[in-house]
Structures are given as C-alpha cells and as structure tokens.
Amino acid sequence: MSIWKRKPLSQLLEEASESEKGLKKTLTAPGLVALGVGAIIGAGLFSITGLAASTNAGPAITISFMVAAFGCIFAGLCYAEFSSMIPVAGSAYTYSFATMGEFVAWIIGWDLVLEYAVAAATVSISWSRYLGKFLGGYGIHIDDAYMLSPFEGGVINLPAVLIVIVMSLVLMRGTRESAFVNGIIVLLKVTVVLVFIAVGWQYIRPENYTPYIPKNTGTFGEFGFSGIIRAAAIVFFAYIGFDAVSTAAQEAKNPKRDMPIGILLSLGICTVLYVLFAHVLTGVVNYQAFAGKDGIAPVAIAVEAMGPMGVNGMITPAYPWLNNAILLAILGGYVSVILVMLMGQSRVFFSMSKDGLMPKVFSEVHSKFRTPAKNNLLFMIIVSLFAAFVPARVVGEMTSIGTLFAFILVCIGVLIMRKKMPDAPRSFRTPFVPFVPIAGVLVCLFMMVFLPLDTWIRLIVWMMIGFDLYLFYGMKNSILNKGNFSLNSFKVVAGSGLGMVLALIVVAFVHHMDPELEDNFLFYFSLIFAALHAMIYAYSYKKSR
Hints:
Elements: H1 9-16, H2 29-57, H3 61-85, H4 92-99, H5 102-136, H6 158-173, H7 175-201, H8 224-235, H9 241-247, H10 255-284, H11 298-304, H12 320-354, H13 373-389, H14 392-420, H15 435-449, H16 453-477, H17 487-512, H18 520-543
C-alpha cells in the first residue's frame, strides 16, 4: 500500500449520503452564506486590522485587503469546484485526500487543525479586549493581569477563555441551534458595519491619509511595499470564512448547489465591506493610534474620533451612544466567528478520525445531539490554552500562514483533479483553468514569503509534530491502506521529515542573524527540536531500508 493512495470519489459520495449514521443535514444556501459572513466579518475588520495598519501598512491597509482578496478569489473558485464535487466534511483535507493521496491529506489536515485553533484564539483575545472597553464605558474595569497573556505583561486572558468554553458548549448541542444563533448575529453585525461606514465617512480627515503609503523604516515588512504585502498576509486569515463553509458540506441539504453559492457569495460581500471599513477606520484616526495593546480593538479607538474637532484640538464624539452600541454588536458578532472556527476545526478532526488517522473517539457522534461532542471538548481545552497564554500577534500570523498553505494545496488539487478525473460530475467548474489555480498558488505563496520568519518556525515545528503522529499512529491505523504500507512509503515520510529538520535549522539561523531580534529561546529550542527529530527520522529511514 502507498501513502499516495487516493480516497475514491465514489467512497466520498457514499459517506456524504450516510446522513442517518453521520451528521445532521440542516444547512441551506442562505444558512451557508450566513455561516461564511459570520466567520469573515469580525476577525479581520475588528481585530488584526489596527495592528497591521500601525506596524506594517499604514492607511494602505486597504490595498492589503485588496491583495488578500485577489488571492482569495482564485482559491475560492477552486474551493467552490471541490465542494460541489465532494460534499463531505473536512474541507481541504478531504479534497487533498481525493486528489493527492493520504500523506498530503494528512499534512493539510494537520495544518487546518492549527489554522482553526489559532484563528478562534485570535478572535477570542480580541473579544476580551473589546469586552474591557465596553465595561469601561460603565465604570467597570478588569485588571490587565486577567486580560493579557504572560508575554504581554499579564497573567492569563480570562475573558477569552470563558468565551471559548461557552461557544464550545453551544456547538456540542448541535449545528441547527448554532446556525440559527449565527444567522441572527450576522444580521446585527452587518448592520453595524454599514452604520460604522456611513457615520464614519462624515468624519474622515484627509490628513490621516498622508502619507497614504508610509516610507519603509529600513526594516523589511515595516511600511512601504513590503509592509503592504506583509499586512495582506497577516490579515489574510480574515477570509477563512468561506473555507469554514466548505467544512460544513456534510451538513448541507443540497451541497452541490448550495456550497458554491455559500462560498463565493459570502466572499464577495465581505471583500467589499472590508475595503470600505478599513478606509473609514484609517481615515477618522491616524494609523499610529492603533499601536500598543489596544490595537487588537481598533474600532473602539476609531469611534471615539467620530465627531467635530474643537479649537483646542480635542474631538467631541458626535454620537456618544454609538460607541457602546458598536462595541456590544462587535462582542455579539465575535461570538459567531468563534463558533464557526470551532465548528470547522472539529469537523476536520472528525474526518481525519473517520479515516483512522486519529483515534476513533474523535469521530464518535453524540447519541442525542448528533454532534462530535468529545471532539468539541478536546478543542475547547486546546483553544482555551492558546487564548489564555499566547499573544494576539503570534496566533494571528500563525492563522494566516496556515490558511495560505491550505489554499495553495486546494489550487494544486484542482489541477490534478482536472487531469485525473476530467469527466467526474461537477455542478460548478472553476473558470480559466489552469490560469486560476496557478494564479492562486503564486499569489498565496507570494504572501507567505512576506510573513515573519518566527511564524515560519512555528509552522515547521507544528508540521513536524504532525509527521510524528502520522509516522507512529496514522500509518498503523489507516483505514484506506489497512495499516499496510510499503517500505518505500515509510522512507518517503521519514525523508520528508528530515527535509523539515533541515528547513527548521536554516530558518532558525537566518532569523537569529537579525541583530534587532532577541530570539535566543526560540533559536535554541529550534536547534534542540531539530536535533531530536533528526535522530527519529534518520532511525525510521534506516529501518525502512
């Protein structure tokens, strides 16, 4: 048996039809669009935008959103074709399994687990900061020690942990209830976005756009052209919404028709809103105001600047009631974002478990709620830990690099599927193939290159942990290959692991050479981690000969 063995399309379609034994089919096209909009709006607009503007792009953050959307459109078209062909839970994991085989599917599935975990953590951290702002408007103040991670001068981000726990418990009860709540919140959230744009447009100060593209500081990624592209890569995770839609394919009533609609329509709506919102955000207040710990809650800063300026230079908010109203809506809107991220994450793990690549317990469906409750419980713990102890910048960038990597594999998968299965039924076909998927690969890879090297180190370390699990558990319990692999398959996996070791060493050394960075812990950790895994993979490679 081979690690390149693909899961037959007929088997995937058969799994999709087993609604009685699997997950409930409750979602329609409007529900899927709401699911996508619920995931997209919030994560980018309300959280990481301020940080990316203040440290990378300045007012040109609007260009960054356009660049991100450009790559996202290509990937979205590829996702739409796959989701219409393969209506099974698992997103890019499932698509990769059908086109590139089990080993690549494992890689992308493991990447998606990280992507959704850190995305949910990022949004919950931002939710925590907005909660502090909202309560502060009523004279209630929470000590920063319980609002920040230890790396930001705090002890634990307690509100972020609590919201993750609550949303996980909601998911355990079932997607019907989750989708209904999400639909209500999305309507409220979109309304608030439109109000913010309409009201803020009146108080845009042209001087805040000068310079529109701040001059590069001399450091790669800090303003200038490199800053715009780095910002595009950082905020890219905000477009994860349509990816989350595809993970719900097995729970859609008519996936072949509804999935492409849900993916593309939610992407189109949110791209327009992103650009308009970012334009207003950086127009009513100077981008430098978003630096610091409050940068994760930029809307609160912008709303305070919506009003006439007096002769003393002080701004009097024109609509004082609007501040708390918007903060309240953002808090509610974030709930749906966290919910969708947690749902997408658990469904990917669900699919991997059904294939034997993860313990069977994670694909067990609750007898009453018909949801993977144990799966939800596991990720409630994992995401809570991320939210409690990891800084927002780190989890945000990790989400972006994981998302970009997933999109690249989906685009490649369309090319392979067109060649291997040209006559397979498709209710939606990606136009202009091979141009669209190739452009998707190039644009996403281009943005990945501009992300900080410490983000690459964390991604490589996570992927190496995944190699360990596949080598010592997944290959032994694979249902498709019945646990029987050729020696050459073990050699390929071990050899790929050694390649990851080399990549980790190179990236760690290049990162360490920057005199402005204090990365001794990350540097030595990387070297020790690489040395241990070099021995593990070398032993496995030798054993397979």
